[in-house]
Every structure is written in structure tokens, then in C-alpha cells.
Amino acid sequence: MNRTEEMIQKDVAHLWHPFTQMKLWPDEPPLVIQRGEGNWLIDSQGRRFFDGVSSLWVMVHGHNHPRINQAIREQLAELDHSTLLGLSHPQAIRLSAELARICPGGLQHAFYSESGSTAVEIALKIAYQYWQQCGYPAKKTFVALENAYHGDTIGAVSVGGIELFHQVYGPLLFPVHRLPQPFCRRCPLGLEHPQCRLACAEALEPILERHGEEICALIVEPRVQGAAGMIVQPEGYLRRLWEICRRHEVLFIADEVATGFGRTGSLFACQLEGVEPDLMTLGKGITGGVLPLAATMSNDKVYQAFLGEFAEFKTFFHGHTYTGNPLACAAALASLELIEETGLIFSLGPKIDFLRKGLAKIAELDHVIQVRQQGMMVGIELCRDKAGDVSYPPEERMGHRAIMAARKHGVIVRPLGDTVILMPPLSSSLEELELLLDAVAKGIKEATEV
Ligand SMILES: Cc1ncc(COP(=O)(O)O)c(C=O)c1O
User: Is the overall model pTM greater than 0.90, yes or no?
Assistant: First the structure.
């Protein structure tokens, strides 16, 4: 037995993988990723694969970036970890000031945690407690979108709306008002864009008119519902939701965990529509994709409601052990410096256009019914017929088959159901994007044309 086989044997015996049917896991021996180099992953047998989903939507400047590595090494020599409960440290201080500078609107206060899910939990709890402390104790429920995804902890699952992931936990969840999904190709209201005049956003108005007194906040993934299959919202949708929330005095939470740090072509998706949320969740790309860190940003209006005398107990009673870990903060600061120094956001324009042109060809393939793109976020939806009437049965695992076929051509991508997701690192070159598009087109053809 060679080293890779040995590792796989131990993996199968002991490692429970996320979002994975473990019964089928041993049937397709996994790649064991040994090294990362720029936008490439190298497995234990030395094979190289382009990281077509940015190691689950996180990688900004590529793996093993010398500047980020150096920042972590320097920080490690100085301070590995110290708590933010009752103490502070320079990197958390510097990062919170940087985030306050670059975030849209007046998001001046950073509360750290370690994952997108915890950032969402924190936003929900802050929004809830805000109204309790402002003298509106009835404001206890949330509005969220159908098919939303905000993470896997119980609060995040409650506001999430993906049946397949969330249904089983139904009895554990708190009730939420739902907005129809802004998915023009399969409009849940049966309307056509733009004649619909954003009826899916306008649906918020009657909910807030009727139940506004008991609603504390709306939470939305701005511009793109990622885990729903990269559902791109029609232009103006986000801003309309924000305007309605402001008029009804309901807090607006933008979940930028997936969209933040350049993914949509803008530093933050909210900036594409001039939206200034009350609370904003950040994760994934915040450290350039290197260490686990998340932040929940809040504006001063929200923050002020938590100030009071000790015995008033307006404190936000929340905090994770590794909150604001110095190594992760140092990585985040280095990543933010790189974003500015390299003009990363400006450099995205040609890459996004290049992707768009290449995707137009993929859209013509027989079993592709829609290609959705927002910046560097892409969903390619597969269906048995071009009209999109006959889905592949789940047991065919067509999305999975397509990505496994693409892997033979040297790229790692992941499906969400029968939608193939591409989310290349923002540092990808045009040549790498070409290779990605080519491998994915071949993979889709090989999987669907049998
Ligand atoms: C919009 C959004 N929010 C929250 C999360 C949860 O983040 P994490 O997996 O880091 O908990 C995700 C993860 O994909 C996400 O896409």
C-alpha cells in the first residue's frame, strides 16, 4: 500500500466530510491535496489542478502568497493568540479600523468570529437585541428569501431557505417571513422582467405593512444567492429592499460572506447598488482565503443601542474563544493591503469580460439551460432538455458527473445539484480562465452526451 492509499484508508475510517454522503465516499477515492501554489492545487501524487472554486469561495490572491505567509510568520513570532474578552491586540485593532474604512456606509464597528455562519448568528442576535433595547420588544422575527443560504448553525439555518439542507431541522428552527426568490428564469410569481417592476422586491412592502411591528430585520445575500445556484438578482432589486426596510424601520442585514472582497467585481456587492446596510457579515475571502476569520460589521446607530451602565445589562453577551485571532487578523490585513496595492478590483474587469465571452459558448451546449454570472461568480445549470422542462433524476448526479469529468481535464470545480459552480481565484490569469472554461465545457459534454 503506498502513502496515498494509506491516507485514504484512514480518511475513510475516521474522517466525516461536510455535505458528503459517506456511504458513497469510498467508491470514488478522494484527491488528497498536498500543496497549494498560486491558483493551483497539487495532490499527493504530484498531479496539478486549477482551483476553480477558490477552495470553497475563499481564495483571493492564490495559495501560498509570500506576502500573506510573511505576515503570518511575523505575527507568529510576536503573538500567536490572545483573547479579545477584556483585552485587545494590535492586529484586531488595525483590522477593525481598516474594515471600517472600506465597508460601505457607516459600518464602523467590527465584531469578530471564525466562520460565515457565526458572523450571521451574531448579526441576527445583534438585530434582535437592538430592538429589545430600543423599547420595541415585539420586534422579534426576521424576513429572509426563499432559497437563501446563510450557513449551517441553527439561527443561520432558520433564515436559510434551501429545503434540501434545512427541512430536516424544521422543528428546531424559529419562524421567518419569506420573500419570493428573485429568480427571473423561473419567476415564482409567474412574471416577466422588466415588466414585473420588481414585484418580488415589492412583496416586502405588504409584509412590513402587516407585520412590521414584529419584524426586527431583513437578511439577504446581496446581488447573488450563491448556494441556491448563483441566482443573480435583477438590477435594482437589492436597493428596493433596502429602501423599503428603511421606510419601515426594519434593520437591513447584508450577508456578504460569499460576495465580499471582490467576488462580484466590486469590493462589496452592496456598493453596486449604493446600499448601506445596518449590519454586514464578512467571512470567506476576508483573510485572502488563508485562515478562518469572520466579522459582523455594524453601524453606529445599532452599536449605540448596546451602550449603557454595567447594571443595565445592555452588553452583547456573545464571544467565541478564538474571536479575532491575531494570526488571522494579520493575514486579513496583508490581504487588504494586496487588494489595494495590486489594484485587484480594477484588474477584474477584463477577467469578468473574458469569462462572459467564454460562457456564452458553454451556454450553447445541448444540456445547458442557463449560465448565470455576477463578476467572478458563475453557475451553469444543466438539464436533460434544452427547454429546461425535464430535470435529471437526482440518482443520476449529473452535476457531480460533470465536475468529475472536468477534473480529468485538470480543474477542480463543485456542483450545487445540477448547477456547475465556477468561482476562480481573483488572481487567475486569462490563460487560467481559458483552461477552466475549456475543461468545464469538455466535462459537461462528456457527462451529458452519454
Ligand atoms: C452567503 C453565505 N453566508 C454564510 C455562509 C456560511 O459561511 P461558513 O461556511 O464560513 O460558515 C456561506 C457559505 O457558503 C454563504 O455563502
Answer: yes
